[in-house]
Amino acid sequence: MFEKSEEMFPAKKNGVFLSHCAISPMQRHAKEAAQGFLDAMAEGGVRRLPEFYGVLQRFHQQVGQMFKTNAENISSVHNTAEGMCLIANGYPFQPGDEVISYVHEFPSNHYPWRLQENRGVKLVLLDDTDPVGSLSGICSPRAWSMEELIRKVNSRTRIIALSHVQFSSGYAADLKELGAFCKERMIDLVVDGAQSVGCLPLYPEGCNVSAVAVSCWKWLMGPFGAGLLYTSPAFRDKIALTMVGSSSMQQGIEYLDHTWAPHEDGCKFEYSTLPWEHLAALNGLLENIFLRYSMEDIRTEVLRLQDVFLQHLDPDLFRPFLFSEAHRSGILALLPKTDAGELVERLLQNGIVVTLRSEYIRVAPHFYLSDQDMKKAAESFNMEAV
Ligand SMILES: Cc1ncc(COP(=O)(O)O)c(C=O)c1O
Rounded to the nearest whole angstrom, what is the distance from the C-alpha of residue 306 to the centroid of ligand 1? Predict the structure, then answer.
C-alpha cells in the first residue's frame, strides 16, 4: 500500500536510514519542488515570483488538512524554537504564574519558558520517571508521569509545555488525556511536535491543544530549517506580538501604509519574508505523502517495522525501552551492552544510520523502509555488538 521505491526515497540507495528523529534525507518531491523555486529565482528573481504566489496559502491549507483544522490556524516558522518563543514571549503572563514542563525536554521547548523567569514566571519541571518499571537506575531520561503533573498543577498554572514524543527515549504522551485534564482546569497545553508530526496522528482540536510547534526535517522529511506552528484561535488572540516586520499587517505590500492592523489568523506570526523554497518543498511532501496516507497507517507501519527489527535483534546484546502501546512512537531507544558510541560508528560504516542520545541508541525507521531493511539492520547490530 505504501510507495517505498528508491526512486521516491533516494537515500535507500545508500543503506538503511534509521535516524528520522535527527535529520532525515529529504524526500524526492520535496527536493524537486524546492529546486524548482531556486531555479526560477536564479533565472529571473522577482520576475519569476508570480509563479509561486499561491505557495504560502497552499501550505496553510495542506497543513490544516493534516491537522484536521482550518488553514487560518497554521503559520510558517523556521523551527520549533521560533514557534515556542513567539508563543512564550507573547503570552499574557503575570508575575507568579507557572509553567509546567519536563526536566528532559529538548532545549527548543525549555529555554523559551526559562526566558519567562525574567517576567516573574516560575518554571516547574516534572522529574524523570520510569513508566516501564524495569528501567530504574539503568538510565535517564525516560518519561514524566501524569500523577506528578496532577500534583504540581495549582491555581497559578497557565501552561503545560511538553513534547508529544520525548526526543531521547521515544516516550509518547497521551495527548487526549493531557488535553482533557488541561481543558477542565483552563490551562493552555503547548506541544512540541518535532518528534511526532509525520509519524503519529496529532489533531490539536480533538485533544484541546492550544499550540503545536514542529521542525519539518525529521518525520516530515522536509528541508533543514523549515518549521510550522499551529495555534487555536482563542490562544492566538491572547498572544501579543513580539516579532513584527513587512508581513505583519493586513495591508500587505502597501509598505508605505503604516496602519497598525496586524493579521489575526496564523499570518500573525509570519512577520516577514519567508523561505518559499521550503514552503514549496513542504507542499510537495504533503500533497504526495502526508495527505495521501493516513497518519494512523503511517504509525502502524513504523511500529510494525520496529517489531520486525526487534524480532531479529539479539536480546542478550541489547535492552530496548518497550513502552506500552499508547506510549510508543517512531523512536525505539536501545541500551547496548557494548560501548554505544563505538557501535554507532561501526554501524555507520555498514550503511546503518542511527543516532545516540544520552546513553542509548535511537532506532527511528520511517514507513518507506522494508522488512528486509529492518532485518539487515538488526543483523548488523548483532554482529557489531559482540
Ligand atoms: C523534541 C524536539 N523538539 C525540537 C527539536 C528541534 O528544535 P528546533 O526546530 O528548534 O531546531 C528537536 C530536534 O532534535 C526535538 O527532538
Answer: 22
103 half-sphere exposure, CB direction, 13 A CA radius: 12
Same domain, 225 and 309: no
Torsion sign across C-alpha atoms 87, 90, 92, 98: positive
Same structural domain for residues 320 and 281? no
Answer yes or no: do 367 and 227 share one domain.
no
Best residue among 19, 86, 192 to mutate for probing ligand 1, ranked by most atoms within 8 Å of CB: 192
Nearest CA to ligand 1 atom 3: 194
Query: Are residues 75 and 149 both part of a single domain?
Result: yes
Specify the range with the lowest mean pLDDT, choosing from 6-20, 100-114, 132-146, 162-176.
Answer: 132-146
Q: What is the pTM of this model?
A: 0.97
Domain that holds residue 114: 44-290
- Give the model's pLDDT for residue 262: 97
pLDDT 10s digits, 260-285? 999 999 999 999 999 999 999 999 99
- The H or E element containing residue 99 is strand 98-102
DSSP string, 353-378: E-EEETTEEEEB--TT--HHHHHHHH
